[in-house]
Amino acid sequence: MGVRVWYEPPPHGPRTSLEHPAYGMTKSFGPRWLNKLAKLPEHRVIPIAVIGFSILGAIPIFFRDNKLPHTLSPEYQAAQLAYMRYHNMNPIFGPSSKEARMKDGSI
User: Fold this and answer.
1) Are residues 100 and 74 part of one domain?
2) What are the tens digits of pLDDT across the range 13-27?
3) Are 58 and 74 found together in one domain?
4) Domain span at residue 43?
5) Which one of 2, 55, 81, 89 is separated from 39 by 20 to 30 angstroms, measured CA to CA?
6) Has residue 13 been placed in a domain?
7) Nearest Cα to 86, choosing from 74, 68, 101?
8) Minimum mean pLDDT among 32-36, 48-52, 73-77, 84-88: which range?
9) Are 52 and 44 contacting, i.e. CB atoms less than 8 angstroms apart?
10) Residues 6 or more apart from 10 whose CB is under 8 A from it?
11) Distance in angstroms (rounded) separating the CA atoms of residues 41 and 63
């Protein structure tokens, strides 16, 4: 024999009355601005959020320095190439191949 469950909807339902809070929301939900933001329609909140996150994403671009990373210096790349050749990395088409060694004159 199954168990019978009676569903009773919330007394006011979500967003059905402006005098009563939505189901599950109480007066101590959070700051007043957050309550106002939660009651705004989605077509007004989404563009504001997209613009806000775009501004947050652009902040590092404006405050960066234009120096290249140390891994792009010629000394570092030469050391990396020597390491790769010493350990015979990618011997068919890479820096350890006969063609690459002949091109650099290291054979």
Assistant:
1) yes
2) 665 655 665 555 565
3) no
4) 32-62
5) 55
6) no
7) 101
8) 32-36
9) no
10) 23, 24
11) 35
